[in-house]
Write a structure and sequence with these properties.
Strand content: 35-45%
Oligomer: single chain
Radius of gyration: 23 Å
Distance between the termini: 30 Å
Number of helices: 6
CATH class of the largest domain: Mainly Beta
Number of domains: 2
CATH topology of the largest domain: Endonuclease - Pi-scei, Chain A, domain 1
Strand order of the largest sheet: 4-3-2-1-8-7-6-5
Length: 330
């Protein structure tokens, strides 16, 4: 996940408060103010006596010529390097990104931040925002946090729906409200995840729970931020999942709780691009997939040829990360 840090030099308590409120990952502050930050809230501090020690675990370096690029490459093998560009140009950063990681680039506006986070499509590991006031800092952090990855969704045709016996399913309650056409990506295979709709739909059985996705069996994968998947059984309070809408827009959501309960299950199989994929979901009217138009479709209404949205990936996964190897999942 890309780091969004705030530079607060000279010290300014209002700027720290803005960084905390907007959800910055860390603040860089002058020496002697580490404990003041900690009294204001829980956030990582970059400072001489901070959580990340400036000058040891994190170093600052300005790019002026080729020798500076070489020094940054050398130092990035052992620590994080905050990179400054004297003359704002993307070429030195491209050279660095192509050869190393552990780079955080100091930027002075939102446009620069977005540019360096996408250099060579890979981007640097993070940005250090050096902005003039709490309002601009807060808005920049929020914009970067909310400009999450987009996911390509593909229509898949239902082949069959088969009732199964009882199984353990995971109901994921988040700290985020979801609307029509939104939910989480869940599936038996990391190569195809079904968009499971949030319980935000009015129905005669239970009150809507717009924060909830009744996601599927404990063994299933669920999409997390940063291109990762995790098992539903691994989710717990404080975990992060990716909320996705039918257009492929995403946002991060914090898990408030994950409930595992014994319920009747069913197998959903669908075909896309000549391959068959599946998910095991709870057998209940309130469990829904999503049509290409963004409409929720209850699993009890699924029939052959009905189209639902899936996220396809050609690569397999190892410990939740994509790997370029031949993996067959049945």
């Amino acid at each position: 996940m890309k780091k969004v840090w705030a530079k607060i030099v000279p010290w300014n308590a209002g700027m720290v408060a803005a960084a905390l409120e907007a959800g910055a990952d860390a603040v860089l502050v002058p020496g002697g103010h580490e404990q003041e930050v900690k009294r204001m809230g829980l956030i990582q501090v970059v400072a001489p006596e901070g959580d990340l020690r400036l000058g040891e675990e994190v170093v600052e370096w300005e790019i002026r010529d080729k020798d500076d690029e070489k020094e940054i490459l050398r130092r990035s093998r052992n620590c994080l390097v905050i990179v400054r560009c004297r003359d704002w140009t993307i070429i030195p950063l491209e050279n660095l990104v192509a050869q190393t990681d552990n780079l955080v680039v100091e930027v002075h506006d939102l446009e620069q931040a977005r540019t360096v986070l996408s250099v060579l499509e890979k981007g640097v590991d993070g940005v250090l925002l050096d902005l003039p006031d709490p309002s601009s800092l807060r808005s920049a952090i929020l914009a970067l946090k909310e400009s999450a990855e987009r996911i390509s969704l593909t229509p898949a045709r239902i082949i069959r729906v088969v009732p199964l016996g009882l199984g353990d399913r995971v109901c994921v309650d988040t700290c985020t409200r979801m609307g029509k056409g939104e939910g989480m990506l869940v599936g038996n295979s990391g190569q195809a995840l079904f968009l499971v709709h949030a319980e935000s739909v009015e129905n005669p059985f239970v009150e809507p729970r717009p924060f909830r996705v009744n996601a599927g069996a404990i063994h299933a994968y669920v999409r997390a931020p940063g291109g990762r998947t995790v098992y539903l059984s691994e989710l717990r309070s404080g975990s992060e999942v990716l909320v996705v809408n039918f257009q492929g827009n995403t946002q991060r959501a914090v898990v408030g709780r994950a409930k595992i309960e014994r319920r009747p299950m069913l197998l959903v199989e669908a075909e896309a691009e000549g391959k068959t994929f599946s998910a095991i979901l709870q057998n209940a009217e309130t469990i829904r997939l999503v049509s290409p138009a963004g409409d929720p479709i209850s699993v009890v209404e699924l029939k052959p040829a009905v189209e639902v949205l899936v996220a396809l990936e050609g690569e397999g996964r190892h410990f939740g990360m994509r790997v370029k190897e031949s993996i067959e999942e049945k």
